[in-house]
């Protein structure tokens, strides 16, 4: 908590923003220091006068450092004497050096003082005020003047450091300054009778107490880490706050005496609410019905009035997705499969929402699917063994209990994560649209979870619970905004239930009919009918049906807030609402407004400026102060759209109150504030649902859509990214913001499933037929990142043009003696990286992250050398990127170009991040190439200056000159040749070697001794055998494939299968299965070193086979040689020695990052250990010919 520390000096008051830790203590000391300084100044003036009167007085110093009774001595020494040249203490620099009698004098003074005390005590009169005649022994407290005696020079330094800390900008204390300890010394040195010592001790105790919560807001254990089904224990100290089955709160006291009887509710509806008074009014900002479906979920999340007692809500007062999960343990159990943490598929708990337009249920079904996706991921990732299945050898009773806990841990953690996405959708999509932030390029949002240590009012605390108020049950009834489509749906529902028009259904018939309907609805959510949709054998509803309903809902224009726009079909519902509000004895509209700091309506025309409305209000209510809350909320004027500020145009009072309620609901919820962290949600979970302000200004609704329907919504579908505004309006908004090209504007349709080709012959038939199977995806990715020149890259298409581009690059890559240059470079760079990044962990054992620091970095250095990339290194200290930064940029380039939308939920954010970093890198490379192009006339001198002294000195600048000779120009050379090639080679080659090493450290570890022996031989024959080990490692553990787009109808013979393809189909050729084909690779499970090199398809085949395949084999063999010769090579102990990977369809994997927070297509980390040195052969050290091989 932050406290203001007041500083008072010379009659002026200064407020300094307080900080946690020692701030009040520092503030108290600061006041003390200023007061002390002022006193010293006053004393200084007095002492100067006395010095003139008595120049012969000499100071003495007491044994404890305090000065003698001489005022001059006190002023000059502050307890510390000045030193003469000989080191003796002297208060007068002009005094002669004589014997020091100060100690003897101090003893005499002390004796005299003690004698004086004895005489004073003896002269006291007898005490008659106490029963036993004892004297009052209380010591009188002393002030600053006495404190001065105890101060030392280092105490003044402490006060100076205190002032620096107090006035500084950092709210944190550097504990290495020992400030707290020095303050303790200062206080401890003050006299026992010091008032200041008592005051500062009190402040210190208060601050140390305040550093911890009392009582704690968070506790350990499943009871507190997980949401309870009924919402209890959100506030640990008061567990029933917000619990389902407790009473509504009252927000506003009804002080005005209201008339009795009140106006007839039916009359109120018919005169100022009904849509029949003027017809449907469309939403002025073209908001979609989807926004109001979210609002419906929110209100049913927080309000479920008991039929037996209108004062009680049967759901919790928290945004905990109870419409999906249930509001008590029985309802929750009905939703669960009670196996692997999953929910029953495509259903939800809340029966009431079956009576709402299907779009509401579709949203809950998406959350259902997201939950089940999450728990599968949690079990697969199994962070720190948190979700390890029980062992089979347990006793039966313990086994059942263990499986029950396994299921519950997955379910409860999955719920926390799913609710995390839910609340982010509410804050970043729903709330931003409410205030119009979706219509501007601003990343600001009203997020109540913000840390508010500074400038916050006392009481703006977090995680203290919430109790929903009855008034807000009325605030959220936005029936005026029901669309014409949903109005028709409601009318049809009446006909279905009652067999007649809503106008013919009486109130009693309505209540009886609704009661029967609820009783007939099965308790098992999976058995309930949903919008007439049919379930498959797996219990799931048709994706096509659900997406069709969602698409129509997104395109559906909502109604406008305000008077006379509620559908007549809801007349009975509104009457019941008004009667309920009267039963709650709610305050009036004006009382409610004043509670929120709004001026009350003085005239009826202030409520609604339309005479047709305010005249009727006048007749009904007589006085503006008597207008009831619900009627007033509905019939007020609606706010006019304002960008930003007013997005959905609610009525005035609702506009203000809903923002307060949103802040309260979120900030009061412990599971969204104090307990919303990775320890509860897991690193992966909290990352999965997090928002990125660089993507859609933080909007996250698209994550829900794409996870639920990956085969319908493209990664950039406007329907998924901005579903709360109708698409035609979204297009106008994005055109104005300059972002229209970021999105697809097509209606969602089923995306044809990709066609997988997995056999040797099938793969070759696809990859060698560029006329039928094109690289359309690659071309789109290249054009997105590199612009128009990117579409001219050699891998962007087929035909003579692209073949010529390929030949140009081939001539540059494969220069004379290229094999020797590549081999020598890698045999030099790997040992240097090992020396730089490895560390000794005891004895002769060394350790290094071989993926991050060796594998990835080696390829970055190689690419930087041959393409003159701006890498910061020893030889290029003015470079821009570290090797790890440059690796990530090049990896992102590869992913965007070659992986496309393999994971559609991540593709949009990846492209959003990839484009600017690619452009930044390209511009820097373009500057380098431009400089090289302008120095062609003096190329010999410049190249000698720019080339690096390593095995690639014949590449680098020379290669750039070779590319420029093709006549493409600087811009074209960079964006169509250099940058795409660099992006295509680094991450891919690093992945290959990482997988090889992972194999030989795991299933193939029996081969390590032979690899070690061969690596130490350092002969061409041994290197050739190592090449075969490399290729076998790739075959055994490599996960490679390539996408193509079919351009015409064709049948692929894929072994015994016939794969039918039509234009537009995505075809994926997998190398994983064919690598185990016994027809091509006899004894496929064994490492054999006699297989023909040309039998391996690891570098592809056809016109788009990896151009650098030959160089890659040389490079990776050299790397295997350098790593393989390390003695006793092994994985590092524990999980750090494993390459954490998540299995995917077809034998593929994705990899987890170091924090286990997100997936990545390439390996990110794996540590290895070995004993002794690097075992470098002598010949390697001679290759540099004495020149330094810098990184």
Automatic annotation (TrEMBL):
CDD domains: CYP_LDS-like_C, linoleate_diol_synthase_like
Keywords: Dioxygenase, Heme, Iron, Metal-binding, Oxidoreductase, Virulence
Pfam family, one: p450
Residues the record lists as binding heme b: 479
Matches recorded under InterPro entries: Cyt_P450, Cyt_P450_sf, Haem_peroxidase_animal, Haem_peroxidase_sf, Haem_peroxidase_sf_animal, Oxylipin_biosynth_metab, Ppo-like_N
Transmembrane regions listed in the UniProt entry: none
Compositional bias annotation for Polar residues: 56-72
Annotated Low complexity bias: 79-92
Region (Disordered): 51-102
Iron recorded as keyword: yes
Any one of the GO BP annotations: response to oxidative stress
GO terms of molecular function: dioxygenase activity; heme binding; iron ion binding; monooxygenase activity; oxidoreductase activity, acting on paired donors, with incorporation or reduction of molecular oxygen; peroxidase activity
Top-level division of the source organism's lineage: Eukaryota
Keyword Oxidoreductase included in the entry's annotation: yes
Assembly: Homotetramer.
PANTHER family reported in the protein's UniProt record: LINOLEATE 10R-LIPOXYGENASE, PROSTAGLANDIN G/H SYNTHASE
Listed name of the protein: Linoleate diol synthase
The organism of origin for this protein: Sclerotinia sclerotiorum (strain ATCC 18683 / 1980 / Ss-1) (White mold)
């Amino acid at each position: 908590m932050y406290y203001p520390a007041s500083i008072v000096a010379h009659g002026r008051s200064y407020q300094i923003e307080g900080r946690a830790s020692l701030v009040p203590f520092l503030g108290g000391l600061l006041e003390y220091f200023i007061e002390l300084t002022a006193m010293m100044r006053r004393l200084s003036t007095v002492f100067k006068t006395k010095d003139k009167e008595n120049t012969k007085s000499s100071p003495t110093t007491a044994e404890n450092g305090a000065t003698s009774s001489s005022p001059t001595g006190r002023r000059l020494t502050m307890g510390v004497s000045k030193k003469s040249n000989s080191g003796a203490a002297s208060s007068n620099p002009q005094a002669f050096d004589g014997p020091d009698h100060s100690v003897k004098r101090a003893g005499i003074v002390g004796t005299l003082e003690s004698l004086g005390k004895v005489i004073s005590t003896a002269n006291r009169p007898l005490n008659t005020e106490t029963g036993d005649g004892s004297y009052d022994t209380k010591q009188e407290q002393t002030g600053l003047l006495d404190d001065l005696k105890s101060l030392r020079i280092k105490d003044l330094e402490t006060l100076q450091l205190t002032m620096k800390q107090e006035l500084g900008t950092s709210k944190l204390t550097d504990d290495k300054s020992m400030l707290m300890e020095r303050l303790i010394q200062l206080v401890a040195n003050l006299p026992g009778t010091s008032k200041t010592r008592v005051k500062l001790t009190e402040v210190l105790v208060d601050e140390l107490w305040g550093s911890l919560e009392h009582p704690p807001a968070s506790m350990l254990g499943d009871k507190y880490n997980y949401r309870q089904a009924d919402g209890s224990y959100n506030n640990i100290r008061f567990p029933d706050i917000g619990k389902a089955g407790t009473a509504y709160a009252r927000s506003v006291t009804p002080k005005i005496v209201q008339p009795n009887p009140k106006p007839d509710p039916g009359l109120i509806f018919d005169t100022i609410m009904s849509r029949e008074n003027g017809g449907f009014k469309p939403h002025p900002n073209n908001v979609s019905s989807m926004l109001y479906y979210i609002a419906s979920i929110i209100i049913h999340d927080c309000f479920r009035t008991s039929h037996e007692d209108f004062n009680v809500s049967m759901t919790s007062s928290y945004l905990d997705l109870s419409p999906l999960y249930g509001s008590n343990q029985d309802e929750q159990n009905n939703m669960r499969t009670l196996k692997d943490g999953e929910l029953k598929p495509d259903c939800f708990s809340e029966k009431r929402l079956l009576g709402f337009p299907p779009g509401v249920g579709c949203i809950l079904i998406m959350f259902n699917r997201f939950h089940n996706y999450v728990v599968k991921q949690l079990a697969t990732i199994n962070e720190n063994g948190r979700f390890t299945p029980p062992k089979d050898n347990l006793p039966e009773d313990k086994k059942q209990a263990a499986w029950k806990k396994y299921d519950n841990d997955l379910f409860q953690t999955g719920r926390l994560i799913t609710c995390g996405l839910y609340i982010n959708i509410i804050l970043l999509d729903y709330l931003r649209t409410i205030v119009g932030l979706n219509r501007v390029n601003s990343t600001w949002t009203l997020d109540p979870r913000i840390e508010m240590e500074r400038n916050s009012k006392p009481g703006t605390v977090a995680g203290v619970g919430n109790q929903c108020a009855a008034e807000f049950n009325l605030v959220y009834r936005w029936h005026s905004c029901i669309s014409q489509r949903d109005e028709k749906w409601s009318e049809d529902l009446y006909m279905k239930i009652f067999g007649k028009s809503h106008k013919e259904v009486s109130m009693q018939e309505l209540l009886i009919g609704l009661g029967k309907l609820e009783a007939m609805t099965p308790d098992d959510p999976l058995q309930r009918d949903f919008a007439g949709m049919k379930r498959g054998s797996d219990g799931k509803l048709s994706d096509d049906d659900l997406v069709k309903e969602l698409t129509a809902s997104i395109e559906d224009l909502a109604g406008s807030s305000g008077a006379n726009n509620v559908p007549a079909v809801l007349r009975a519902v509104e009457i019941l609402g008004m009667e309920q509000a009267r039963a709650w004895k709610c305050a009036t509209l004006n009382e409610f407004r004043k509670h929120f700091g709004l001026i009350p309506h003085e005239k009826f025309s202030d409520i609604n400026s339309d005479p047709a409305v305010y005249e009727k209000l006048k007749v009904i209510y007589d006085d503006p102060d008597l207008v009831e809350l619900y009627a007033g909320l509905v019939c007020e004027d609606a706010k006019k759209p304002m960008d930003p500020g007013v997005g959905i145009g609610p009525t005035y009072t609702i506009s203000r109150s809903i923002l307060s309620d949103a802040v309260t609901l979120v900030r009061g919820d412990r599971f969204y504030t104090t307990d919303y962290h990775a320890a509860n949600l897991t690193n992966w979970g909290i990352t999965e649902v997090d928002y990125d302000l660089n993507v859609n200004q933080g909007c996250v609704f698209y994550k829900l859509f794409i996870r639920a329907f990956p085969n319908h919504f493209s990664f950039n579908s406007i329907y998924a990214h901005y579903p709360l505004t109708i698409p035609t309006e979204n297009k106008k908004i994005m055109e104005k913001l300059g972002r229209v090209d970021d999105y697809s504007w097509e209606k969602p349709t089923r995306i044809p499933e990709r066609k997988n080709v997995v056999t040797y012959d099938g793969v070759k038939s696809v990859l060698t037929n560029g006329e039928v199977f094109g690289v359309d995806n690659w071309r789109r990715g290249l054009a997105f990142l590199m612009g128009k020149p990117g579409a001219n890259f050699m891998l962007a298409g087929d035909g003579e043009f692209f073949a010529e581009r390929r030949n140009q690059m081939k001539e540059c890559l494969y220069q004379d003696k290229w094999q020797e240059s590549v081999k020598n470079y890698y045999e030099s760079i790997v040992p240097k990286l090992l020396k730089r990044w490895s560390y000794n962990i005891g004895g002769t054992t060394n350790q290094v992250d071989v993926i991050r620091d060796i594998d990835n970095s080696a390829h970055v250095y190689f690419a930087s050398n041959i393409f003159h990339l701006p890498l910061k290194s020893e030889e290029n200290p003015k470079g821009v990127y570290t090797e790890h930064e440059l690796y990530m940029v090049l990896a992102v380039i590869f992913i965007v170009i070659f992986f496309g939308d393999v994971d559609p939920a991540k593709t949009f954010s990846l492209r959003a991040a990839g484009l600017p970093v690619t452009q930044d890198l390209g511009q820097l490379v373009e500057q380098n190439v431009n400089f090289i192009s302008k120095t062609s006339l003096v190329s010999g001198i410049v190249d000698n200056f720019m080339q690096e002294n390593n095995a690639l000195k014949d590449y680098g600048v020379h290669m750039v000159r070779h590319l420029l000779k093709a006549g493409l120009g600087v811009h074209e050379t960079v964006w169509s040749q250099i940058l795409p090639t660099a992006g295509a080679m680094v991450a891919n080659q690093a992945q290959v070697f990482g997988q090889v090493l992972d194999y030989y450290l795991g299933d193939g570890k029996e081969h390590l001794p032979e690899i070690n022996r061969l690596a130490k031989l350092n002969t061409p024959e041994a290197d050739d055998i190592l090449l075969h080990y490399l290729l076998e490692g790739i075959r055994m553990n490599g996960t490679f494939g390539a996408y193509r787009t079919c351009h015409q109808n064709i049948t692929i013979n894929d072994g015994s299968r016939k794969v039918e393809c039509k234009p537009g189909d995505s075809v994926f050729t997998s190398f994983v299965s064919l690598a185990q084909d016994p027809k091509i690779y006899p004894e496929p499970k064994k490492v054999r070193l006699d297989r023909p090199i040309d039998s391996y398809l690891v570098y592809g085949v056809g016109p788009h086979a990896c151009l650098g395949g030959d160089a890659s084999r040389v490079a990776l063999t050299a790397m295997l040689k350098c790593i393989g010769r390390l003695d006793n090579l092994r994985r590092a102990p524990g999980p750090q020695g494993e390459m954490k990977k998540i299995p995917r369809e077809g034998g593929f994997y994705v990899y987890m990052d170091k924090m286990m927070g997100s997936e990545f297509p390439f390996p990110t980390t794996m540590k290895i250990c070995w004993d002794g040195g690097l075992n470098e052969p002598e010949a390697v050290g001679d290759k540099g010919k004495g020149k330094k091989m810098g990184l």
